[in-house]
Amino acid sequence: MYPRACDFQVVRKDDNAGLGVLSHRHFYAGELLAIMHGKIVTEIRQHTLQIEPGKHMLDKYFAGYFLHSCEPNISLDMLSNTVTSLKEIKPGQFLYMDYAQTESVLFKQFFCGCDSTKCRGWITGKDESPVALLAAPDVDATKIG
């Protein structure tokens, strides 16, 4: 159940989002997509996923490239290292997770462009606040939800 090249590919989505994981096959809602694996590290990096506080999985080949959406199509279980579809995923669709599902603190907070009706606007880890960023002159406080 490791990610297979025939099922997924890391490709450039666009200049804003960068690289993401594209599905090459159909998955039904609730279906197991893959089992993640990677190097265990103690620090947050750009392509890590938090397993527990102070313990992160570094996967620069698959899971580290899941894109963010406030209305994701996949869910991650970091105890069993599984990726499950939350809704139907068709060939040619990117895999989207909600970064706040696994991350207490993000490597880097950012404005969200997911266009979901559930969009939070400013994306943080589940334990961090965007308040410190309000002092930045280029941050629009009306976009932080």
Features:
three-stranded antiparallel beta sheet; Beta-clip-like; globular; 0% helix; 145 residues; mainly beta; single chain
What does this structure look like?
This protein is mainly β and 145 residues long. The protein has a domain at 8-104: SET domain (Beta-clip-like), CATH 2.170.270.10. It is 0% helix and 31% strand. It has strands at 8-14, 18-23, 32-35, 39-41, 48-52, 55-58, 67-68, 74-77, 82-85, 96-97, 110-111, 122-123. Strands 3-9-8 form a 3-stranded antiparallel sheet, with no helix packed on it. It starts with 7 loop residues before the first strand and ends in a 22-residue tail after the last strand. 25% of the residues are buried.
The major pleated sheet works out as:
3 strands, antiparallel
Looking at the structure, what is the overall shape?
Answer: globular
CATH architecture field of the domain at 8-104: Beta Complex
Distance between the termini: 37 Å
Question: Secondary-structure blueprint of this entry?
Answer:
Layout: E1 8-14, E2 18-23, E3 32-35, E4 39-41, E5 48-52, E6 55-58, E7 67-68, E8 74-77, E9 82-85, E10 96-97, E11 110-111, E12 122-123
Parallel strand pairs: 7-10
Antiparallel strand pairs: 1-2, 3-9, 4-6, 5-6, 8-9, 11-12
